[in-house]
Amino acid sequence: MTTTTAPNPARGLGLREVITHTWYMTDRQFRVFARQPAYLVITLIQPVIWLFLFGQLFRDIVDLPGFGTGSYLDYLVPGVVVMNAVSANMWAGMGMLEEIERGTLDRFLVTPLRRGALINANIVAQGCSTAFQSLVMIGLGRLAGAHYPGGLTGILVLIVGSSVLGTVFGAFSNALGMVARQRETVIALNTFLLLPLTFLSSAFMPASRMPGWMREAARFNPLNWALEAARSAMRADPDWAMVAERGAALIALAAFAVWLSARAFRGYRNSV
Question: Lower Cβ count inside 10 Å, N or C end of the chain?
């Protein structure tokens, strides 16, 4: 005789609750952005400076043998978009620390709110913010004269790739904030990591022009994975196998970062 297991209605209910509560907490963060729209504008100032200042300063660098493109602006736009995703999301832990210091996070812990929604909302809000900023910079690059032969598909890959990369660093930053609980630690680590991650990638210079040791380091740099996938997808003849490979690596790293952030949150919850 065979037996069948009845479906568990509580499981479906729990999933719906997680989705509903995640949307509620995400909407809360969107309302913060809506009340302080200057925040998103201010965060765009530095990447816009990179885009136009570096685009003009290094525009003749494409004349170097083996550079591989005729326009430095075409090359630079994905680099600036990806760099902004890293630099903006590396400070996510500061927001988590602020929630802890104000007691907001502790108050949410005594409500019926699903615990996973607190972490999920941060990830969704950061991803949406990164996608918006990426779209703005892509548009500004186009107005400045950049070309995107890969069309909308290539642009979409760049936006999704930058958002996934932002999730990686945002989740790691949240985990660090909850473990260290000190602003100085988050600031020090972000300051230490940003420049090495940027310059050990092809953000400003193709790998073919790098010293051998830098090329080797770039192979293990997630910032470079996003750049390689985006630049390939934005070409007229994309290498979709490479795009899929780099994309899968980024998604796997993002999943690990989110898991680590959830573990850090569980540790914080057990400590209060």
Answer: N
Identify whether 43 is part of a domain: yes
Could you give the angle at which helices 240-271 and 222-233 cross, rounded to 10 degrees?
140
Identify the DSSP state of 145.
Answer: T
Instruction: Give the C-alpha separation, 167 to 120, whole Å.
Output: 11
Give every CB contact of residue 139 below 8 A, 6+ residues apart in sequence.
none
Provide the domain limits for residue 206. Answer: 23-271
- DSSP string across 190-255: HHHHHHHHHHTTTSSS-GGGS-HHHHHHHTT-HHHHHHHHHHHHTSSS--HHHHHHHHHHHHHHHH
Asked if residue 1 has pLDDT above 70, the reply is: no
Report yes or no on 3 lying in a domain: no
Has residue 265 been placed in a domain?
yes
Whether residue 5 is contained in a domain is answered as no
pLDDT digits (tens, 9 = 90+) for 71-87: 899 999 999 999 999 98
Mean pLDDT score of the chain, rounded to an integer?
Answer: 85
Report the domain count for the chain: 1
Q: pTM here?
A: 0.86
